[in-house]
Amino acid sequence: MKIEDAVTAVTAEASALLSCLGQPVVAYHVTAIMREADLEHARQMQLALMRRSIEALVDDGLEDVAAERFASQFDGRVGSTWRLLHASDGVAH
């Protein structure tokens, strides 16, 4: 799996987030996370993106619970895709 494929996989079901933060912003952050080889640092970056995502979704009119649910699903896709990407690199994490 290539980073571009990973970003596409993660953002495929993120239309609500893409509309309020913008596709370039989301793609930039997801790409940075996917490029980060250190698991702990990638997770810190991921958590920061999730906080920003919840704030943006709430600002865009979503209720807190719905925003958190969406961000949790997005977080899961980011994490699982990161693990797939880095597992294919043969790097043990």
Overview of the molecule:
The chain has 93 residues and is an all-alpha fold. The chain is 80% helix and 0% strand. The protein has helices at residues 3-11, 15-21, 23-35, 39-59, 64-87. It is globular. The chain starts with a helix and ends in a 6-residue tail after the last helix.
The helix count comes to: 5
Structural class: mainly alpha
Number of strands: 0
Shape: globular
Question: Low-confidence parts lasting 5 or more residues at pLDDT below 50?
Answer: none
| Binned strand content | under 5%
C-alpha termini separation: 17 Å
Secondary-structure blueprint of this entry?
Elements: H1 3-11, H2 15-21, H3 23-35, H4 39-59, H5 64-87
In brief, what are we looking at here?
The chain has helices at 3-11, 15-21, 23-35, 39-59, 64-87. Helix content is 80%, strand content 0%.
Structural key phrases:
single chain; mainly alpha; about 90 residues
